[in-house]
């Protein structure tokens, strides 16, 4: 997720199961730099395929910190190998991390990983599945459209075609008990600020139009208590003006013709949502999936009542709930069981 203010989506690692698959370092090259990854392969059986773990937004240190260990071990126990890597400039991967990497470019990165796995004849590489969370909901359908041999896609907390920070902002203000009229004012300024930036308006005009927004406690914390600078505004504006923007909603369009791209997906899809997701409007995405994926492929949709954006058990689903209240990072047990059952039944 991005907006005209830099946004960092938290990606959390899961608990580690008792399974002990073979673990090996496996790197691939993309745009002239080497990306560091980890390959997990079942010890006692030839893998049915390889599931690529595609990250959401933000920096990663996934290999060193063993991210998504519970998810990967679920795949291993279902007979699949898994492959996960760190983004450019993160962990042991070379290059420079780019918060604003285009999702189309991220899709090419995934395809580069697939081709390397197949070139090196890694066991299971003839059958490739995709698992992805949040931002990966833009990336993986593009991959499937461009690389026709994807066997399946597991979408976690998927997205629609547009920027979702407005939803995140409003929902978290509701959790804080902010009055409706105040939320409406702040939301209006958020959209107006995006519109002014996209239309090439001056820094002074933007600052005047977002006076209340920039004082908001949640937004200040979200941006590490640093205000937008004139240089930062104009630097981002240059990129922002080149992207797609929906004037009616005041939201950036991340993937043009996203409905068509989803409709072109022809592999089985399992879509998983947390019903207390306050980052992404999961019900809106669910309807979109049913309207597009549901017409042309085998689509299964499952939601979990007390799960947040990262599919951890929660009380409110608020962005800072786990940090502020020291809650345990535990996924609903049915989340892992659902994936395992779906893999065993469908593939």
UniProtKB/TrEMBL annotation:
Q: What positions belong to coiled-coil segments?
A: none
Ranges where the Serine aminopeptidase S33 domain occurs = 46-312
Q: Which residues form the signal peptide?
A: 1-19
Gene3D superfamilies the UniProt entry points to: alpha/beta hydrolase (3.40.50.1820)
Q: Which InterPro entries match?
A: AB_hydrolase_Est10 (IPR053145), AB_hydrolase_fold (IPR029058), Hydrolase_4 (IPR022742)
* Highest taxon, organism lineage: Bacteria
Q: Name one GO molecular function term.
A: aminopeptidase activity
Q: Which UniProt keywords apply?
A: Aminopeptidase, Hydrolase, Protease, Signal
Q: What is this protein called?
A: Serine aminopeptidase, S33
